[in-house]
Amino acid sequence: MPDGESPATVRIRDGRIASIEAYESEAPNVEDLGDAVLMPGLVDTHVHLNEPGRTEWEGFATGTAAARAGGFTTLIDMPLNSSPVTTSAEALSSKRLASEGQLSVDVGFYGGLVPGNADRMGELIDAGVRGIKAFLCHSGIGEFPNATENDLRQAMPVLAERGVPLLAHAELASEDVPAMADPRKYADYLATRPPSFERDAIALLIRLCRETGCRTHIVHLADAGCLPMLAEAKNQGLPITVETCPHYLAFAAENIPDGFTLAKCAPPVRDEGNRRALWDALQSGLIDMVVSDHSPCPPDMKSLEEGSFEKAWGGISSLQLGLSIIWKMAQEAGLGLRDVAAWMGACPAQLVGVPFGIEPGHPAHLFAFDPDAVWAPFPDDLLHRHKLTPYLGMEMRGRVLRTYVHGNPELLAGQLV
């Protein structure tokens, strides 16, 4: 609520918040949530739903059901891992058609920048994408090659003129890295994607942001060594925002066992000192938001038996669990639910221009939350397609009791945004 936390009666009409009134336990036509906290639905601006074309990896039905169970009411889907990739208005139309009748939450889409399609940025923006995603290194998907500096220079002035953000996977790969001597060793995998990859990419993006004025968003920041240059850029007033993910805040390289490929992601999870520095930067506001980068795949792509970091798909599934992961850490640090709602709701919503908050006139995107529940997730708890996540069995804090999308507590209430 704009004025903070207090007992209240929230009235909903036609899928929107009609009014916020004084709390009345005996009021007619009111559902009393007891001691639960009614929170604004969260917004995850970095998910891979993979449909059409790779629905066996995830899909709209399973991904949005998992999001809803985790308190998220709006998702923005990345342009790769589906087939076709979302690099044209036609591909965006295919994705929208594939989503029909499957959405438990609201879903919007990004377009993609790849070599040769910089002249299609206006077309994608006109078709309604919420931003444009580019990789500065190989994406892992052959149909979505990395954008070059020249591609960025062509596209960013168009995005600046239209007020649409560029979202960048900020790793610039070099050939001067060691091969994995033992593909099972996490340390060997970590050495193949050193911090210099992120630092070189972010230095380039800051330079292009300064030259073009394009809103520039750094996705899944993993290297805390990038923070000083990002702080300087922000202090200079450049339109740069930064996200990190639960896995970079919850895990440290020293604690990832060899062969534990469920923890493989790119950029990789780094050491404990790095983890603490990211957490500090989130608390200070230098890192703007926390999003999932929910990037699932079928079990056979995770090399679970062999435990090869070289062969395993790099992606972590946490869409349903992110709130409970971050709330546990925030509570231990003496922070409150308003901090978590800012990191996982208000700031992502602002990035892509969707409403957020419990305010009259806003969509009735809400969830009831028990902040004191202590639990550990197991496969049967998870609603995403494959029950693979490094968080299985870990202690969580806080649990979503019920989610309302456009005021509807039932599934399949989502819309395209």
TrEMBL record:
The keyword Hydrolase applies. The keyword Zinc applies. Its EC number is 3.5.2.5. PROSITE patterns: TATD_1. It holds the Pfam family Amidohydro_1. Keywords: Hydrolase, Metal-binding, Zinc. Residues 37-408 form the Amidohydrolase-related domain. One of its GO terms (molecular function) is zinc ion binding. GO terms for biological process: allantoin catabolic process; purine nucleobase catabolic process. It comes from the Bacteria. Belongs to the metallo-dependent hydrolases superfamily. Allantoinase family. This is allantoinase. It comes from Algisphaera agarilytica.
